[in-house]
Design goal:
Blueprint: E1 14-23, E2 26-36, E3 41-45, H1 52-60, E4 67-72, E5 75-76, E6 87-91, H2 102-112, H3 117-130, H4 146-158, E7 164-168, H5 176-193, E8 196-201, H6 204-210, E9 213-218, E10 221-227, H7 228-233, H8 238-243, E11 248-254, E12 259-262, E13 267-269, E14 279-284, E15 296-306, E16 310-317, E17 322-328, E18 339-343, E19 350-353
Parallel strand pairs: 3-8, 3-9, 6-7, 7-8
Antiparallel strand pairs: 1-2, 1-4, 4-5, 9-10, 11-12, 11-14, 12-13, 14-19, 15-16, 15-18, 16-17
Helix pairs in contact: 2-3, 2-4, 3-4
Length: 354
């Protein structure tokens, strides 16, 4: 089992350079560029129709771009057929052959490459061991759970030692608990093999759990590429701030000395000083509010939800703002109509230019 490991995997650097793709009048990809480092797990995150799956298909060779190019370790593969790209893929629907056993499903890409039978047997055994399916060799896909079928698909994707691994929303059909388990298993396996990986999802929590970096897409373009911490703490735009995590987003004008005046007239003191007169966006994460003297928000509770470890409150302030607040679940859940006062420290407020 140990022989299919990092020393057998030759991870690659992937570059997508100025790639565009249109379907009729729709720009599915609009001059997209990105770099995935060797051994990195990059998640492409975005809503339905953002272009993330089209980008994956261009990398895999299932779609030809209208312009731009794709290279692996400096070698262009833009027009190379999928079977010649040395890329493993895992799909949401598993794409297993229903009439073939687990062993035959995993062996299939090796048989297509005319690998010797003894080597096929060795590699399939190793791959099944890595995904913890040793002993399931002769079962058919219909005799497996959803999570087990996904493991078979993953074993098939890595058995031929691909240079890149692409995963297209692979856990979308799984229940939440199993999905969380599979996320950790994929991350463990990816790190163990050091395999350059692109993971596609519309689930921002999944992206934060799995990734070294995240690329947020919308309307065919990449809005921001950054580490998970930076994407969450310092989003570059309204869209990224709103799409990744719960957010309170306001607009205003930067004043002198770290002051922002929001639309409606409220003044906030922030840690980042911007040029006076600039239009800015202000992000406050709901969990960052506290009982503090700085930047007070007092208002009436118009919604109160118990979430086990926390209370989620929606407040309407006296100046008309709607504010989402998360508090540790201590004491009684505030009731609708109750008045609550919270504050936010300047260094907990993220300000970005519009």
């Amino acid at each position: 089992m140990e022989r299919l490991d990092a020393e057998e995997v030759s991870s690659a650097e992937l570059r997508v350079e100025d790639v565009s793709k249109r379907f009729g009048q729709v720009a599915a990809l609009d001059h997209v560029s990105l770099l995935v480092e060797r051994g990195e797990l990059l998640t492409i995150l975005g809503p339905s129709g953002s272009g993330k799956t089209t980008l994956l298909k261009v990398v895999a060779g299932f779609e030809a771009p209208d312009s731009g190019r794709v290279t692996v370790d400096g070698v262009e593969i833009t027009v190379r057929p999928p079977a010649k790209r040395d890329i493993g893929m895992v799909f949401q629907n598993y794409a297993l052959f229903p009439h073939l056993s687990v062993r035959r499903n995993v062996a299939f890409p090796l048989e297509m490459r005319d690998v010797a039978r003894a080597e096929i047997d060795r590699r399939v055994t190793d791959a099944l061991g890595l995904v913890e399916l040793a002993g399931y060799d002769e079962r058919l896909p219909r005799q497996l759970s959803g999570g087990q079928q996904q493991r078979v698909a993953l074993a098939r994707a890595i058995v031929f030692n691909p240079r890149l691994l692409l995963l297209d929303e692979p856990f979308g059909a799984l229940d939440r608990k199993l999905r969380e388990t599979m996320q950790l298993e994929v991350r463990r396996l990816q790190r163990r093999l050091g395999l350059t990986t692109i993971f596609i999802t519309h689930d921002q929590e999944e992206a934060l759990v799995l990734s070294d970096r995240v690329a947020v897409m919308n309307k065919g373009a990449i809005q921001q590429i950054a580490t998970t911490t930076e994407i969450y703490e310092r989003p570059a735009s309204d869209f990224v701030a709103d799409f990744v995590g719960e957010s309170n987003i306001f607009h205003g004008i930067a004043g002198a000395g770290g002051i922002v005046v929001l639309e409606g007239g409220r003044t906030l003191r922030v840690a980042r000083a911007l040029a006076a007169g600039r239009k800015v966006g202000v992000l406050i994460r709901p969990e960052r509010f506290a009982v503090t003297v700085a930047n007070q928000f007092a208002g009436e509770v118009i919604e109160a939800i118990y979430l086990g470890s926390s209370f989620k409150l929606r407040l309407r302030t006296g100046d008309g703002l709607s504010v989402i607040v998360r508090q540790p679940a201590r004491g009684k859940l505030p009731v609708v109509g109750e008045h609550v006062s919270v504050g936010i420290e300047p260094d907990e407020i993220h300000v970005f230019e519009l």
